[in-house]
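dumping the sequnces here before i forget
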Amino acid sequence: MSVTVFHYVFLATVLFSIGAYGLLSSRNAVRMLMSIELMLNAANINLVAFSSYLGNLSGQAFAAFTIAIAAAEAGVGMAILLALYRNFRTVNLREIKELRW
Amino acid sequence: MIEQAWLIPLFPVISFLIILLFGKRMKEGGGYVAVAFVGLSMLVSLLTIRDVFSVGRYESEGISWLGSEAFRFGFLIDPLAAVMLFVVSFVGFLIVVYSLGYMHGDPGVQRYYAEISLFIASMLALIIANNLVFLFISWELVGLCSYLLIGFWYRKPSAASAAKKAFLVTRVGDIMLLAGILVLYAKFGTLNLSELFELAPSAAPATLTLASLLLFGGAVGKSAQFPLHVWLPDAMEGPTTVSALIHAATMVKAGVYLVARAYPLFTPESLFVVAWIGGITALMAATMAVVMTDLKRVIAYSTVSHLGFMTLALGVGGYAAGVFHLLNHSFFKALLFLSAGAVIHAVHSQDIRDMGGLWKRMPITGTAFFIGAWSLSGLPPWSGFWSKDDILAAVYGYSTPLFIIAAFAALLSAVYISRLFFIVFTGKESEAVKHAHEAPRVMTVPLMILSLGALFSGFVRFAGFEEFVLNTLPAELAEHFAAHEGGHGFVMSLSIALAALGIVLTGITYYKPVLSAEKIRTTFKPLHTLLIDRYYLDHIYLFFATKVVKDTSTVINAIDAYFIDGLVNGIGKATAKAGEVMRRIQTGITQDYASWLLLGASLLLIIARLTGGAA
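..and the predicted 3d for all of it:
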């Protein structure tokens, strides 16, 4: 059984679902960031898979951009988390509700 | 000097500004400044008038306001404007001089001179305006000054309310004037008077009738014609100089002047209305003047009556006669008011029942009053006789009922003015009169000059006044109206006989009491009550204002307070309530936002799948 595009899409779906689950269920902000990374990479897999399947390179170019942006996002996210931690002595986002009504 | 005529209103404006800013620190509150600048303005007016005799008519290019050709304001000097300029600047100057004596020592004297300067400036601007909007602006300014000066002693409740009354009643007329101007602009697309006169003959008569009647509505308010005459007698609450200047000699003439100015716009139909309103006013006011006991009020009703005469004259086509009476009336009425002012100054009362035998105490004032009264009564040979005779002659050829009305009003003129003279200056000296003494020189000299005017202004009739004034009108109109004029033997003898009869009747009642005034009063009790209560017109207006307007307002107010406000407040409350509910969505918990995000994205995907649009 050879590896078809279907397998890639399936892998991506699984990864995305794990990411979404992690994002919604975890209380720790670091884990939430990691879950977001998973979802992003699921999208990347999709892009590369379809790029290879359709013989069009723009999908891979997109994936390269996404990786760069994901790195930047992770950096900014971690910086915000550090600042949050300094202020609240916790990274549990359920306890940080300052912007609530 | 005619090309520099714009200087005429400018001088009093300068005086107004100077007195407004520095008057407090000046002698007499800046009275001398006012005299100087109004004097300069009179000088320029006289030089301009001299040029009118040679040039005839001059219209300036003007300055366009707001970049609109409809608002191109310039000045127009023609014989009519010249007559009016002469009256306003000359009488105005004399009255400002007289004020130096009359207003001496009043705490608000600075305000007085500032307002009177502004008034003279706006009145002069009104006269020379060549554009209806320019005229309207000046018209409103003189109305404002009239309001301010009637309420000059604003701490007195009666003065404050008289000022308000004058302002509100004339406002009714002003709105009509504005409507008239709008109609003219909509029809002709210009507001320049000369252009309007050129275009007028080609317009539909119905439009012209409407527009001219609306303009006349403005005149009715300003010139205190029936049924808007009620403000003028109350306006006597102001200083007597104000009554003389604004409410006898100049501002109240603005209405008559407007009719004369816009004369080519009037159709026979609207002139018919003008004539009847004038006739009714002349008679009604004269009857009321006969019974009043307040010195100034009698003269005020007499003013209303004579304004009615002028309107009547213009209405029946006696153009020159109306303008002629305007000129003469300014002199003898200003004279009467100023001598009445001197009397009030000396006696400290306005009620003629407190007066009597003043002749010996105040010979100069008495003589001045006598001359004014003689001129007004219509006995020859002084000014009032000639113009009244011209008016009666013009009316005689127009309509018999109107002629009877006018003749009766003329008879009453003689009655009320001689009654005033007999009661105030002859007879037994009363208590209040004992301490009276003659007015100071600064007040008597203007009286003497005005007396000369009242005596001799009538003789300009023989120096070609009629042709001079008729030059104002376009040639064919002038010819048409010239035909109406000219002395009439029957009318002249009737007018003399009526005046004499009036004076004799009053004489045997008040001077040598053959008839008892008391008895006449009781015999005609209902009539007397009707006249003293001013035909109940004030009552009707008051009822209208307090009942009808107020009740309607109450209803409308209730609708506003409960319905409109309820609606607006309801919307506000509903929004606040909705916000109260909706803000619960903002939990502040990051996962909730993420869930909503995912849910939304999934929903979009599902919708796209179902509709098949996304693929």
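Chain B touches chain A at residues 583-584, 586-591, 594-595, 598 (CB under 8 Å).
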